Amino acid sequence: MVEFDLPVVLCKLWEAGSPSPEDDETSSRRKKLAHSTMLLAMAIRWGTSHVTSEYHMCQYKQYMKAYLECVKTIFPEIGWRPNHHASLHLDEFLRRYGPMHGWWMFPFKRVIGSLQKTNTNHKIGQLEQTMLGAFCAAARVKALLQHPDAPKVVRDASNILNVCCSASDDGALAADLGVFHTLTQTGETNWTVNGDAKVEEAPALVKRALVAAGIEGHLDVQLDMFSRCTVSGIKYSTREATRTDCNIFFNESGGRLVPGVIEYIFAIRSANGKPRYFVAACRNLPVPDLVTDPFKAYKDFGARLWKDEHATELDIVSLMEGTFCHAISMPWLDGILVMKPLKRTVRGPDS
After folding, report:
1. Does residue 122 have a pLDDT over 80?
2. What CATH number does domain 189-351 carry, 2.30.30, 2.60.40, 1.10.287, 3.40.1710?
3. Which residue has the higher pLDDT, 144 or 110?
4. Source organism's superkingdom (predicted)?
């Protein structure tokens, strides 16, 4: 909530920023509160990035110190707590131990939650052995199914179980553990497509987008169309399949992240029969210059104003090479949204 919902709501209600001489005491205090919340959100964004550097550490500490100073001016009567002191040392933790997701406790809390769901019949004394036995047995089966040297029949069974019994169905444990393998050692993205493909002729919009993207050699062939895909453990879908997983941010040709909605997920088979997978998305339109975007003053917050309307043409993003992530949004004005990429990898200026 503090990373998006609360800062956006306070910014909309109280106009985050420095108080002006015309503000009364209440307005001035509210602006400071909204500003402090934005500072905290930006500190969290730099501190929890899945990559880190000296620049990340400096940005985190700069925003955290500014947040604490702002809080002290709003609440001068409140004394510092141990958490306030500890927050100023997290940059040293990043320097010593690397990105925060490698040593925070959220995945282990999820494991405790999984253990608590184990059937034990409430028999104290046998309970511990039951939980340990069930947990270890499940861990061994998972290790066997994921072993690179496993027999072909085991690998085939693993693929079937991954579709039927996905560990990410509840979203909790898999989302936390998935950060450890967002990228493989070779830098390749982990991805799968879900469901049976529908073989169809490419729609006219897709054909025009393929031409614009320089992929012109496959306009007369039929495409394998999918409704869902999974990239690094995160589920995406077309707008027709579901409204919850279709809103994304993706890299346009210039490298800038822009928001859009997934219209098609499809595969093109090359001459050697190997498929190439793509996502076709309609991007959100930019807001007019007359609309004041308060989030431009908070660049490191990562949010911007966009129209709640989409372009008529499609953008093509490679599922194997493209960079995209889910989008989070909130209504701002009539026909205008605040949109932010749910992207944990925040790059510094030299990245």
Report:
1. no
2. 2.30.30
3. 144
4. Eukaryota
